[in-house]
Each structure stands twice: as C-alpha cells, then as structure tokens.
Design a protein that fits this description.
Layout (H helix, E strand, L loop, with lengths): L1 H10 L1 H14 L23 E4 L3 H17 L5 E5 L2 H7 L8 E4 L5 H11 L3 E5 L5 H10 L3 E6 L3 H9 L1 H9 L3 E4 L2 H10 L5 E2 L11 H12 L5 E7 L3 H17 L8 H6 L1 E6 L5 H10 L4 E3 L13 E3 L6 H7 L2 E4 L12 H5 L4 E3 L7 H9 L3 E3 L3 H12 L2 H17 L3 H19 L1
Parallel strand pairs: 1-2, 1-4, 2-3, 4-5, 5-6, 6-7, 8-9, 8-12, 9-11, 10-11, 12-13, 13-14
EC number: 2.4.99.12
GO molecular function, one term: Kdo transferase activity
Catalytic activity: lipid IVA (E. coli) + CMP-3-deoxy-beta-D-manno-octulosonate = alpha-Kdo-(2->6)-lipid IVA (E. coli) + CMP + H(+)
Length: about 425
C-alpha cells in the first residue's frame, strides 16, 4: 500500500510546484527555497540537532512553548525547525538561536525524505499535533531516528479517514516511537488509528503566557474608547461575509428606528474588530467590509496611538493577539460558525476576554466543552446569535467580568503539558543515543 502511495505522491510533484507558484503570488514566502520541498538542501547542517516539525502557524506557536521548556532544561540545545506553510516558517524565525537551522519539510516521497534525513542527521524528531507522513516515518525508523508525535490530536473526522486508509495509516501510526496525546478522547482515537499512546499530557497551548506588554497596550487603548469593542477572532473564509451581513441587517434596523424596540440597538452600539486567521486574506477581508458599506480602519495604519475611528477595524498583523484580546470586551471564536472545526480558544481565555463560540469546535472539542462546562465560554447556534450575545455581554459589565475571571482560571488550571512533554522528549533522545 505504501508503494502505491509513494507512486501517487511522486507523480503529483509537478502539481505541487504549480500550487507553490500560485500560492507564492499572494504569499512570497512560498517561493523561498522551493528545492527544499523536494529534498535538496543547501543550508549547512551539523548532525545531532533536535528536530521539530511544526507545519503551520498554530503548530509553530505550540512548538515555541515546548522549546521554552526544552531550553530551560538544556540551554545548549540545537534545533532543526521545519514547516509546511509560509506563515509557520515566518513565525518560526522568531524561535531560532545561534546554531539552529530552519527548513521546509520535503514532500513525502521516499527519495526526498531520505535526502532530508541524510543531510540534517537529527538525533530525535517530534511531529506536532497531526503530522503523520508514512514515508517520513518509515525513513526515520530505517535511519534510527526516534520519532514522536507530540501535542497529538485526532478528530472523529480524521479517524474515519485513517480507518478508510487503514493499510497505509495504521503502519505509520504504529511505527512512531512515542505518542503524547492532548486528551483522553484523542488517545482513544489515536489508538484506534494504530498508534501506541504513551501518555495523555494535555494541550501545550495552555502553557502559553500572553505577552503582558501587548495585553496592557490593548487594555490601555480600550480604556480610551467611548464604546465597547467586540472581536471576530481568527476568522475563516466565508465567516466574514456572513458576519458582515448580520451587521448590515442590524444597521438597517437601527436606521429604520426599530433598534429601540429590539436588541439591535446594543449591536449597533458596538465597535467591531475582525482578525482574520490567515494573513494572505487581510486585504480581501478589508475589501469585503468596504464593499458592504462600512468604513474600515487597519491595525497596520494605527501606529502606537491606537485605533482611529471606523465602523470596522481589521487586525492585519501577526503575533499581536494579546493586544487584540486586551482591546476587545468580548470575542467571537473564528472557525466555529461554519463546519471548520473552530480555532484555539485558550489564548482568549488566558487574556481574560470572554468567548462566544458557534456549534463547530471539533478541532478543539475537549477544550471547548470544558470551557463551556466551567462557564469560561458561551456557545450559540448561529452567527447572528453570537453577535447578539456579544452585544448583551458588552452591555453587562458584572457578567462580563465573571466570564473573564472564569476564563483566566480555566486556562491556568490546565497548564503543565510543556514540562511533561519536554521531559519525555529528552528521555526519548537519550534512549535513542544510547541504542546507537
């Protein structure tokens, strides 16, 4: 089965090159070091680095938390950091220290992954969250490189896919040297997929500490405003258009004089901030808002003075989510209002920003369910309900403060995954070196 998979992946390489060129037109980062995608590396490398693969932005942020714990234990640690997306690679640059190396993980052909391992010769590897590649895992096993899956999660949808491809997926999961799951449910699903789960360590993202300077700046900006602020956080394509329709409908009600008899008056009183999940969509989302008749202000034009007056603000910057959560009185959880699985709500909770989420949170199912059960987040059925709930929360200071406090307590109560994962990974590295 892996032979058929390898042939298909090999034949798809021209399509990958075409896709990279197309993506690179909007995100130049995809045009960087394209040959690395196919296993050709020019970057000098010394053997023995600890290798972390963080495919995209979210995984890279989780890797940053793990790296902090690893370096606290071994300050001389050398790291090989690999990615699959331009946003992940851009974020990963911030994590590099002298002696570290960054590269693209190659396309999963037997030849490319063998060249990757022969060039970098890592001492141990860790794949973040969901990145299970059959040829890569087989090549690591052949080369004697211990390989772990950390902060591991597997949704019901992904499990069904793995079971459909059992002859390919099960050997890959089984060949991992260690699997450290986020939750008991993830562990159960990973076991069904063929993995041997060695521990349930929790979610690394609970160990993230919001940047206090960014959080304080956002709160200072909020204190200077005369109206409450609500945010659509980490929004995904399709959500912004639906959100703007809801706002436009509320505005029409206000203009017609109906707002005083409905909750739409509270909706109209809000200032709105939209922070798209993917930076390549900043311009498109700003254009959508303008086309819907709203005036638009963008974070990139604010400077240090804070937001200028506008109907809708666009958070078009990277690495500033604590600032946005500090600025907002309430946040709507992006990715949860369409069947996209939802985005990470942990950072919002840690920042003390009340959360309203939609029905689709399967990517972070246990965290979302626990937050709801503990009163740290609210769930609604539709985006229209979410907008109205945000308006009600913004107008109710005591209730909003209770939710904020519960969110901070929820985030703090689930810390510890970084320490557990770092200890296990360094033990795996030691066991690998002792067996060679």
């Amino acid at each position: 089965m892996r032979g058929l998979y390898s042939a298909a992946v090999l034949m798809a390489q021209p399509l990958l090159r075409r896709k990279l060129r197309r993506r690179g037109a909007a995100e130049p980062g995809y045009l960087e070091a394209i040959d690395e995608r196919f296993g050709t590396y020019q970057t000098p490398a010394q053997p023995g680095a600890l290798w972390i693969h963080a495919v995209s932005l979210g995984e890279t942020r989780a890797a940053a938390i793990l790296l902090e714990s690893l370096r606290a234990r071994d300050p001389a640690l050398r790291v090989l950091l690999t990615h699959g997306t331009a946003t992940g690679r851009a974020e990963g640059v911030r994590l590099l220290r002298e002696g570290d190396v960054q590269a693209w993980l190659p396309w999963d052909t037997p030849q490319a992954v063998r060249r990757f391992l022969a060039h970098f010769r890592p001492s141990v590897g860790v794949l973040m969250e969901t990145e299970v590649w059959p040829n890569l895992i087989a090549a690591c096993r052949s080369a004697g490189v211990p390989l772990a899956l950390a902060n591991a999660r597997l949704s019901e949808k992904s499990l069904r896919q793995a079971l459909r491809l059992r002859r390919l997926a099960a050997p890959a999961y089984a060949a991992l040297d260690a699997v450290w799951a986020q939750t008991d449910d993830d562990a159960r699903r990973l076991t069904r997929a063929g993995a041997r789960v060695d521990g349930v360590y929790g979610n690394l993202k609970f160990d993230a500490r919001p940047d206090p300077a960014l959080l304080a700046r956002g709160r200072a900006w909020r204190a200077g405003l005369d109206r409450p602020v609500a945010m659509l956080a980490s929004s995904r394509e399709g959500e912004e258009a639906a959100f703007l329709e809801v706002l436009a409908a509320s505005r029409e009600l206000e203009r017609a004089g109906w707002a005083r008899r409905t909750s739409d008056g509270a909706v109209a009183a809000l200032r709105w901030l939209v922070v798209p999940r993917h930076p390549q969509r900043f311009d498109a989302v700003a254009a959508l808002a303008s086309q819907a008749g709203f005036t638009v202000g963008r974070r990139s034009a604010w400077g240090d003075e804070g937001p200028a007056d506008a109907d809708i603000w666009i958070g078009d910057s990277l690495g500033e989510m604590p600032l946005y959560y500090g600025l907002a009185d309430v946040a709507l959880l992006g990715g949860s209002f369409l069947p996209l699985g939802g985005q990470n709500l942990i950072e919002a909770a840690a920042c003390g920003c009340p959360i309203v989420m939609g029905p689709h949170t399967f990517n972070f199912a246990e965290a979302a369910e626990r937050a709801q059960a503990q009163g740290a987040a609210l769930r609604v059925a539709t985006l229209e309900d979410a907008v109205r709930e945000a308006a009600a929360l913004a107008a109710d200071g005591p209730r909003r403060a209770r939710l904020a406090d519960l969110g901070v307590a929820f985030a703090a109560a689930h810390r510890g995954a970084a320490s557990r994962t770092a200890d296990a990974l360094l033990a795996l590295a030691r066991s690998g070196s002792s067996s060679t």
